[in-house]
Specification:
By secondary structure, the protein is of the alpha+beta class. It folds into 4 domains: 91 residues, Ubiquitin-like (UB roll), CATH 3.10.20; 354 residues, 3-Layer(aba) Sandwich (Cytidine Deaminase, domain 2), CATH 3.40.140.10; 103 residues, no CATH class; 35 residues. The chain is 23% helix and 21% strand. It contains 16 helices and 30 strands. It has an 8-stranded mixed sheet with strand order 26-20-19-14-10-11-9-27. Strands 2-1-5-3-4 form a 5-stranded mixed sheet, covered by helices on one side. The chain has a 3-stranded mixed sheet with strand order 7-23-24, with no helix packed on it. Helix 13 runs antiparallel to helix 14. The radius of gyration is 30 Å and the shape is globular. The N and C termini lie far apart (89 Å).
Length: 651
C-alpha cells in the first residue's frame, strides 16, 4: 500500500478509543476485521455507527467501500455490542443472591461461542432500536418549564406580557428546587440541563463508570504482570448524585403494606418482597417520575428476627414477571422489613435507623446495587443504550415516634459500578461502613476516594477503606395516597387469599384454601374474586391443574376490569374442572371447614349439582382397616380422614 492513500479512523467504544488505518478502496467488511483485531474482541457481535445514539449504521458488506460510505481521514466511528453481547473475552462478574455479596455479580450474558465467519452474518441484521420506557417518551414531549403567575408587586406590564419576575423557569433551576425543598432534581431535568446549551446536547455522552482493566492492550503482559495508563481504570472520587431516576414511590393503598408486614406480626421474623407496579409522571417535581406499586410478590426465602436469605429455588420468577406484564405491571423495586418490637401493649417499634446509626447498611446497599444492575434504565444518550436504573429500595422500619413507616432509597450510579465490578464489600461489625477491595493477582481495583471536612474545616480526600455508605445513597420518598387506589380488589369483609411462599399455619396455599376463598363470593362477584395477584399466581402454577396457558383472557379482564369478559372465561372448560372439584369438596367438607360453607359457582345451581355428582366417584374406592386410597392422586390415607392428606380433595 502506498502511504499517502491510507486514512485513519477513530473507533470509540465503552472501553476506550482506538485508531484504525484503512485504504479508501477497502470494503466495510475489511473495516470490521480491522476493528475486531484492534480491540482484541472475542467475536463479531458488534455494530458500527457514524453518529452517537446508534444512528447511521455502517452495514458490513464486501462490495461497499470506505470511500462510497463517505468516511474520511480522522472521522469518528462508534462501536456498540449487538443485543448486549459481551465483546471482550475477559470473564464477566459472577452472581449472588444472598445479602452478603462475597462473589461477583453476573450482569452480562455469556459470550458467543460461534466462529467469526458465523458472527459476520449477524452484522447484516438491523439492530433493534432503543425502546425507552413509556413514561420517558411522555416526558420528552413535555416542555417541562415551571410556569409562574404575574407578581402584582414586581411586574409592571400588562396581563399578556412577561418579564423576569414571571417568566417560566427551567426544570433544573436551583433556586426553585431549593425553595420547593427538592433535594435531587429529576433525571429528565438533568437531561434538559445537559441539552440546554448552544450545542443542544450534541456532545452529551452518558457512560457508566468502569472499574475493570480495559481488555486488548498489547503493550505489556496481562495483569498482574503488567499494566499501563491506557488500560488502567481511572481513580474514582465519590460525589453526591444530583439527580434521581425515580422521584417518588407510591403504594396504591395502605392495605398492600399491611398485608406484607402481617408476616412479621405473626412470626416476628423479617420479610422481603418485590414491588410490581408502573412508572407514571410525578406532578410534584418538574419532569418527575413516580413508581406506583400495585402488588408485592414474596420470593422463596428464609428469615429470622434479624436476617433474610433469598433462596436460589425461585423457579417462578420469570412466570411472575410474565403474569405481571399481562396485567400491565412490571418489577419496579424491592421492599424489606427491619422491625423490632418496643412495647407490645402500645404497638410501637424501635427507632433503629437514624443519623446516629445508619439508614441503609452496606449489605443492603450492595443488594440494591445488584438489583439495579439487573434492571437498567434505557437512555438515548448512552452509547450502550442504558444508563442508571429506576429500580427502588423501600425499608419498613420504625420512625422517631416509634411507629411503623416506610423509607425509600436508591443507590447512585457510582455504587452500581462498584457492585457490578465486585469492588465493594460490607464490613464485619459496622453496618454503616462498606469497604473497597484491595487489588489482588486476580483482580485490579482502582483507588476510590470520598471527601470530608477535617477539624479545621478543610475539604480533604479519604481512601474508601472503610467507606461511609451515605455517599452512595439517593433519597426517594415513599408514601400512600390520600384517596386509595385499587388495581386489585380489597375488602375488610373478605378473608384475603394467602400470600405465596409463607410456610406458616394459616398462610399455606392449597386447594382447601382456594375453595374457602372462592366460597366468600357470589356468582356476580367473580371478577372481584379473581382480582387478586396472589390468587392469579397460584391458579396459574398449582400442581393439580396449572392454568397458565389458558389465563390470557382472564388477565385481560382483570387489567381492564371487564366483568363480562371475566364471566365468559368462567364458563370455559378449564375453569369448569376447577368448579367441579370445589363443588365436590363443598358436599363433603373436611372437619377443618364449617359445615355451613357453600360455594355457588357462576353455573346454575342444578348444573353445579350435576357437576358435583359427575366429579364424585361412581362407587367408593376399596379400602381396608389400614386406610383408603384417594381416587384423585392414589395416595393412601388413614381411615379417620375425610379428605386426602396429599391433594386435600374429598374422600
Amino acid at each position: 500500500m502506498s502511504k499517502h492513500k491510507i486514512i485513519t479512523l477513530r473507533v470509540q467504544s465503552s472501553e476506550g478509543t482506538k485508531r484504525v488505518e484503512v485504504e479508501p478502496s477497502d470494503s466495510i467488511l475489511h473495516l470490521f476485521e480491522k476493528v475486531h483485531d484492534a480491540f482484541g474482541l472475542s467475536g463479531y457481535t458488534f455494530a458500527l455507527y457514524r453518529e452517537r445514539g446508534r444512528k447511521d449504521e455502517l452495514i458490513s458488506s464486501r462490495s461497499r467501500t470506505i470511500r462510497s460510505s463517505g468516511l474520511r481521514h480522522g472521522d469518528m466511528v462508534y462501536m456498540c455490542p449487538l443485543n448486549g453481547a459481551l465483546l471482550w473475552s475477559e470473564p464477566s462478574p459472577g452472581s449472588s443472591n444472598s445479602m452478603a455479596h462475597d462473589e461477583p455479580i453476573d450482569d452480562y450474558p455469556e459470550k458467543s461461542s460461534s466462529t467469526p465467519s458465523q458472527n459476520i452474518a449477524l452484522l447484516t441484521t438491523p439492530v433493534v432500536p432503543l425502546q425507552e420506557d413509556e413514561v420517558d417518551q411522555q416526558l420528552w414531549k413535555l416542555d417541562g418549564k415551571v410556569q409562574r403567575k404575574r407578581d402584582d408587586k414586581l411586574c409592571r406590564h400588562g396581563p399578556k406580557a412577561c418579564c423576569v419576575h414571571c417568566s417560566p423557569l427551567e426544570p433544573f433551576d436551583e433556586a426553585y428546587l431549593k425553595e420547593q425543598n427538592v433535594k435531587h432534581m429529576s433525571f429528565h431535568s438533568y437531561l434538559r440541563k445537559l441539552t440546554a446549551g448552544v450545542d443542544r446536547g450534541k456532545f452529551v455522552n452518558l457512560e457508566d463508570i468502569s472499574c475493570r482493566i480495559r481488555a486488548g492492550c498489547k503493550d505489556h503482559p496481562p495483569w498482574p504482570k503488567g499494566i499501563c495508563s491506557k488500560c488502567q481504570p481511572n481513580a474514582i472520587t465519590l460525589n453526591r448524585q444530583v439527580y434521581r431516576h425515580v422521584d417518588n414511590v407510591m403504594f396504591e393503598n395502605a392495605y398492600l403494606v399491611e398485608r406484607f408486614i402481617n408476616y412479621w406480626r405473626s412470626t416476628g421474623h423479617q420479610r422481603l418482597g418485590f414491588l410490581y407496579g408502573r412508572y407514571e409522571i410525578h406532578g410534584d417535581v418538574p419532569l418527575g417520575i413516580r413508581g406506583t406499586v400495585a402488588a408485592i410478590y414474596e420470593p422463596p426465602q428464609t428469615s429470622t428476627r434479624d436476617s433474610i436469605t433469598l433462596l436460589e429455588s425461585d423457579k417462578d420468577r420469570k412466570h411472575v414477571d410474565d403474569l405481571a406484564g399481562q396485567l400491565g405491571l412490571r418489577r419496579i423495586g424491592w421492599i424489606f422489613t427491619d422491625l423490632v418490637t418496643d412495647d407490645v401493649k402500645k404497638g410501637t417499634v424501635k427507632h433503629v435507623r437514624n443519623i446516629e446509626s445508619h439508614f441503609l447498611s452496606a449489605e443492603e446497599c450492595i443488594m440494591a446495587g445488584y438489583f439495579q444492575n439487573q434492571h437498567p434504565n434505557p437512555c438515548r444518550f448512552s452509547p450502550v443504550g442504558y444508563f442508571g436504573s429506576k429500580f427502588v429500595t423501600v425499608c419498613v422500619t420504625g420512625d422517631a415516634s416509634n411507629q411503623v413507616h416506610m423509607e425509600g432509597y436508591s443507590v447512585s450510579n457510582q455504587c452500581m459500578a462498584l457492585v457490578r465490578d465486585n469492588c465493594l464489600v460490607p464490613t464485619k461489625d459496622a453496618p454503616e461502613l462498606g469497604y473497597v477491595r484491595e487489588s489482588t493477582d486476580k483482580q485490579y481495583v482502582p483507588d476510590v476516594y470520598y471527601k470530608e471536612k477535617d477539624g479545621y474545616g478543610n475539604e480533604v480526600s479519604r481512601l474508601a477503606r472503610p467507606l461511609p455508605v451515605e455517599y452512595l445513597l439517593v433519597d426517594v420518598p415513599a408514601s400512600t395516597p390520600l384517596i386509595p387506589l385499587y388495581t386489585f380488589y380489597a375488602s375488610d369483609a373478605i378473608q384475603a387469599f394467602p400470600v405465596e411462599n409463607r410456610l406458616v399455619d394459616g398462610h399455606i396455599q392449597d386447594f382447601n384454601t382456594l375453595s374457602n376463598y372462592l366460597q366468600q363470593f357470589s356468582p356476580d362477584q367473580f371478577l372481584n374474586a379473581v382480582s387478586d395477584f396472589h390468587f392469579l399466581l397460584y391458579i396459574s402454577t398449582m400442581d393439580m391443574l396449572p392454568m397458565k396457558e389458558y389465563m390470557g383472557p382472564l388477565l385481560e379482564a382483570v387489567r381492564t376490569q371487564n366483568s363480562e369478559m371475566a364471566r365468559d372465561w368462567a364458563r370455559s372448560e378449564h375453569w369448569a374442572t376447577v368448579e367441579q372439584l370445589i363443588a365436590a369438596s363443598s358436599l363433603s367438607p373436611p372437619s377443618s371447614r364449617p359445615q355451613s360453607s357453600t360455594f355457588t359457582s357462576p353455573l346454575t345451581a342444578p348444573a353445579a349439582s350435576a357437576a358435583a355428582t359427575a366429579a364424585m366417584p361412581s362407587s367408593p374406592p376399596m379400602h381396608d382397616d389400614a386406610g383408603w386410597t384417594c381416587s384423585h392422586c392414589t395416595f393412601l390415607n388413614p381411615t379417620e380422614l375425610s379428605s386426602c392428606e396429599m391433594c386435600q380433595l374429598p374422600r
